[in-house]
Amino acid sequence: MIKKNTERNKTIRLTEKEENSYVARSIKLSAHNKGVNLENKVIWQDTFRALNYIPDNFADLIVVDPPYNLTKLFGKNIFRQTDAETYKKWLDKWLAKLGRILKSEGSIYICSDWQSSLLIPEVACKYFIVQNRISWEREKGRAASDNWKNCLEDIWFFTKSNKYTFNMEAVKVQKKVVAPYRDVNGKPKDWADENGKKIRYTAPSNIWTDITVPFWSMAENTDHPTQKPEKLIAKLILASSNIGDMVFDPFLGSGTTAVTAKKLQRRYLGIERERKYVALALKRLETADYDKTIQGYENGIFKSRNYKLTS
Questions:
Q1: Which end of the chain is more exposed for a tag (fewer CB within 10 A), N or C?
Q2: Whole-structure pTM value
Q3: Residue 193 per-residue DSSP state
Q4: CB-based contact 138:153 (threshold 8 Å)
Q5: Which of 7, 10, 22, 68 minimizes the C-alpha distance to 220?
Q6: Contact assessment for residue 253 and residue 65, using Cβ atoms and an 8 Å cutoff
Q7: Which residues pair with 34 in a beta bridge?
């Protein structure tokens, strides 16, 4: 007998009244209000316009999840795929502006799909120093009869200088010990027994296989077509910023970067041009006032993928 799935759909939705109410809390920038307080705000505006009014040396950390070079509908606007040279010119338009906004010891992470991934450093290295490329398994992906199923995305890690924040202890990975070696005195070697489980904490690598893409039964899920999971963004924020630092996202979408920054006691600023996504971001930020949970991250530890579903 097949057991019926009775789990409730948790996708965050808004009525028209709610959308109007949340959007009213956003701000827009211009030469007339250039000195407005930008701490813990959501800007409802075109990114290229709003970036002109963000101060120099503003952000400790920038997290960017831009439209990939794919044809995709975002709210009421379509981002259309183009040739590589045109996409690089588009990247350069906003990366040039981010160079002055990032602090001298700051870091910037840029998300990409496999097709546009190699284009990112071609442009970003004009303004930043490349430190690494993270590849993470999306878990989801459409199969193709004549190609490999695409389940991979990249995140490029750049810094403004060779002096930057990296909190390795904050993002160590918890792993089950398969071969529990002991030293000559019989003590565990590089592992510990925690509640009857043999556990090791290891330095994080640049290959991540523990991420679950938001889906209908996760409290953070929205209908944004390219929403990143809070757990993914939490790793970036914990590694490359400290409590109280300013985290900036110029393509905020439904708010994941700002929400995660708030939950991790950082300040935030985000820019989003789509009205609906601005409202969703502000609703999620309101919820973060009392709900600080990040699915897959508990008590300072990143759990394995789908750990709650398999426990």
A1: N
A2: 0.90
A3: E
A4: yes
A5: 10
A6: yes
A7: none
Domain positions in the chain: 16-175+203-310
Indicate the fold that domain 16-175+203-310 takes in CATH.
Rossmann fold (3.40.50)
CA 42 to chain centre: 16
Euclidean distance between the first and final Cα of the chain, in Å?
A: 22
- d(Cα 242, Cα 254) in Å, to the nearest integer? 23
- To 5 degrees, how large is the angle CA 36–CA 275–CA 287? 75
Under DSSP, is residue 181 helix (H, G, I), strand (E, B) or coil?
A: coil
pLDDT of 181 over the 70 cut: no
pLDDT in tens, 42-95: 999 999 999 999 999 999 999 999 998 887 767 777 777 899 999 999 999 999
Compute the CA torsion angle 229, 233, 234, 235 (nearest 10 deg). 120
Pairing of strands 59-64, 246-249: parallel
Residue 132 CA to residue 39 CA, distance in Å, equals: 29
Q: Could you tell me how many helices (H) and strands (E) the chain has, helices first?
A: 9, 15
**pLDDT tens-digit series, residues 124-139:** 999 999 999 999 998 7
> 194: part of which helix (H) or strand (E)?
strand 192-194
Q: What is the mean pLDDT of residues 262-269?
A: 98
